[in-house]
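Protein entry
_____________
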Amino acid sequence: MWFLPDRSSYSAGVGLDLHARYVHFARVQPFISGYAEQLWGDMLQERQFPDAYRVRALVGVALLSSLGEILIYGAGDVGNRYGIRGLTEEATLGLGVRLALASGPKAAGR
């Protein structure tokens, strides 16, 4: 990542997003996903901003149909927040559900 000079509290950053799914079964596919990000702080309006980081993991199951898929997962993350609370560091655990229409292979065709 690269940020515009004198427009952001960060100068540059790197991120990595990985997703692994066990696709042996036609309608139920367990998955694990991870994300990591490192941002390097910069000077903005005569104020030095610190570096920031974020790490997140998801573990769950994807339920496939001919219309798309439903992902049900547990999530955990640690690191700096975005926005107005960006300089705070927090750790969270949660549960989630995502609906994706027509995003995956059609289970009925297998």
Remarks:
- The CA atoms of residues 58 and 75 lie 5 Å apart.
- The radius of gyration is 18 Å.
- The mean pLDDT is 89.
